[in-house]
Amino acid sequence: MTSVLAYSSLGFYLASFTLYGWWLYHSKRLLGRLATATLASGLVLHYASLLQRSRAVESVPYQDLYGSMSLFAWFLAITYLGMERFHRQRSVGPLVLPIVILLVCLGTLLAPPVPPPHPPARGTLFALHVTSNILAYAAFALSFVLSFLFLAQNRILRNRKPGTVIWQFPALEVLERMARSSVVVGLTAMLFGSVLGMIWTHRLRGTYLTGDPKEIASLSIFLLYAAYLWLARTTEWRGARSAVFCMMNFLVVVFSYTVVNVYLSQFHRYF
Amino acid sequence: MPSQIILIGLNHRTASVDLRERVAFSPAQAIRAAEELRARRIVDEAVVLSTCNRSELYGVPCADADSAAGAMECYFSAFHQLPPGEINGALYRHLNTEAIRHLFRVAAGLDSMLLGEAEILGQVRQAYLAALEGGVTGPVLNRLFQNALEVGKRVRAETDLGTRPMSAAYAAVKLAEQIFGNLKGHTALILGAGAMGEQVVEHLRHRGISRVLVSNRSRARMDELALRFAGEAAGWEQLPHFLEQPHVVISTVSSDAPVLTPSLVERAQAARGGRALLMIDLGVPRSVDPRVGKLYNVFLYNIDDLQRIVEQNKQARLKEVPRAEAIVDEQLEKFLNWQSGRKVWRCWRNSGKSSSTNAKNSCGNTWRS
After folding, report:
1. Fewer Cβ atoms within 10 Å of its own Cβ: the N or the C terminal residue of chain A?
2. Contact partners, residue B78, CB within 8 Å, separation at least 6
């Protein structure tokens, strides 16, 4: 059942990606709406797939790297959808969906049917802690895509060769605003998740901080993105420089999600 | 034959601008002409479409289409007090299918001087609504013009025929929108008084720019331009100060030595917090030093860059023509189906009154055909 739902959601994401690309090429309103509707359907199916997995392990569905990546993909897609509705900009979809599809492929299709449960990793507090942090990663991933698009468009416009496709994409300042709001969502989720994590650790071990390398990595990420927000809004770093900074910050997120999780951290194996 | 549609008129392809000016109809004249054509029993229904590029009469003839078309041509030249010999070479005449196709192509922007321009759809709408209010249309032209408006809307929604800028002035404005998004709350500074600069400012105003600053070497000319653009005069001597305010700078000054140098723009950029600045240099020789384009967050375009954008977009628009023509053909077929259905219905209604078997057979033939 889980794999059927997972395959279906992947199918919807692929269909949505095709429709977004087609819409970008033909700019037919109907195609754009269909792309959004297909993405929303994929999200519902993906949610059902995560729920199935969660019930099977009697805990949150990210007890392993696969489940964690699948949830990452779901949050990335839903954060993008929220941004699409809020900013009324659909043209970023074809760039976000390949990442979602890749994560779903890695996270869902390669996952074992039922991962082994992990006794201490249960409870609402823990679930909210991890969910919030994965939402933050997804929002940072979205800001990475938006900054990349900003830089590409900025380069094209400065080279004075806009071509014929550029008019389909959001304006530079809109992209910058979208990246900033995405980072704000990420920082808020990260702050919330980290506070819950500290409370949970305190209940479990009687201390708020464990000195785990993940804590240092998370604090660095928080400070780097806060610095990005400040630079992008207030100084001469606004524009391309802050977009590069934002993209580099995401490399730290990827480092924290992979190297720190798998090789350095004792308590944060998969999130 | 009843319900046929006749079109006579001239446009930018068949007539010079001088002739087009002389045969243009004002809105009041358009209604008067349609009423007179009906009063003379030449047509049952009439719509006059008159823009700067075309003057066309659409009608549904009372009797024979050919003789009605001839009468419309005579009326057209007589209305404008032109000898028929002067106008006949420029006039075209289309009957039914070709007339319908022509109007659909006009509404789609396929027959425009500037391929895919959007204004024509509004002009078709205005001409139709004026005729409708004047009571000179009927079921056939109502249906025809409503379908034409639908064609125009579909072509705009389903193709890219009208999405990309096609004039250098509009390309400049689209660039501003591609950098800043909504222009509300933004400021433009125009230097000099070139004609294209005026066009850019008009487009900027139309797209919602909040504030326009005008600077010129001549104080009198500057005040005049500021009044015309509903802008503010910005003294030429205080240019370094005013340069700190705008998001878009349009320079129409032609100067042997650049007016806007890298050091001047760099100082302005520092004062305005490094925000993005779009500079459009329309002067020949150029008035903005090309090195300004290398400054951080400055986007510098000259007239050649804008022309290149327009040329690329022309090619892209041409690629959209087959898709737009397919929509025209589709809607044409729908309209012709409606027209033949209406013909059969009228035939049956008339035959019901006469109760003749021959008449009913002839209706059956009409339906089959």
Report:
1. N
2. none
Are the Cβ atoms of A157 and B175 closer than 8 angstroms?
yes
pLDDT tens track for A109-145:
676 666 555 545 567 788 888 889 889 999 999 999 9
Minimal-distance CA residue of chain A relative to B157: A28
Tokens of A61: 């569905």
Is B354 a residue whose pLDDT tops 60?
A: no
CB contact under 8 A, B312 and A163: yes
Tokens 């005069």 locate to B233
Position of tokens 């630079």? A231
Q: What is the pLDDT of residues B174-192, one digit of tens each?
A: 899 999 999 999 999 999 8
Helices (H), chain A: 2-26, 29-57, 65-87, 93-104, 124-158, 172-205, 213-234, 240-255
Select the residue from B297, B319, B327 to test the A interface by mutation, using most A Cβ atoms within 10 A: B297
pLDDT per residue as tens digits for the range B238-255 = 888 889 999 999 998 877
Question: Cβ contacts (< 8 Å) between B178 and chain A: which residues?
Answer: 153, 157, 162, 166-167, 171-172
Q: In chain A, what residues touch B304 (CB-CB under 8 Å)?
A: none
Nearest CA in chain A to B180: A173
Report chain B residues whose CB lies below 8 A from the CB of A29.
157
B280-330 pLDDT per residue, tens: 998 877 889 999 999 999 999 988 888 888 888 888 888 889 999 999 999
Shortest CA distance from A89: residue in chain B? B181
**Where does the pLDDT of residue A1 fall: very low under 50, low under 70, confident under 90, or very high at 90 and above?**
very low
Q: What is the dihedral of CA B205, B209, B215, B219, to 10 degrees?
A: 50
Q: Check if B322 contacts A (Cβ < 8 Å).
A: no
For B274, which of A153, A163, A236 is closest by C-beta distance? Answer: A236
Cα B259 from Cα B302, distance rounded (Å): 14
Is the CATH number 3.40.50.720 carried by domain B168-310? yes
Whether residues A236 and B296 touch (CB distance < 8 A) is answered with yes
| Cα-only R_g, chain B | 27
Task: Using the predicted structure, report yes or no on whether residue B46 has a pLDDT greater than 80.
Answer: yes
Q: Mean pLDDT score of chain A, rounded to an integer?
A: 85
CB-based contact A238 B293, cutoff 8 Å: no
Enter the pTM of the model. Answer: 0.72
pLDDT range class, residue A3, cuts 50, 70, 90: confident
For the domain made up of B6-158, the CATH class stated in words is alpha beta
How many CA atoms does the CB half-sphere of B211 hold within 13 Å? 12
Give B188's strand partners: B212, B248
- For chain B, the structural domain boundaries read 6-158, 168-310
Q: What is the mean pLDDT of residues B7-29?
A: 89
State the number of CA atoms in the 13 A half-sphere of B81 facing the CB: 0
pLDDT level of residue A54 (50, 70, 90 thresholds):
confident
Q: CB of A174 within 8 Å of any CB in chain B?
A: yes
Tokens of A65: 């790297």
Across A53-63, b (16+ Cβ under 10 Å) vs e yields bbeebebbbbb
CA distance A51 to A159: 49
| Residues contacting B120, CB < 8 A, separation 6+ | B51, B106, B107, B109, B112, B152
The ipTM is 0.81
Three-class secondary structure of residue A267 per DSSP: coil
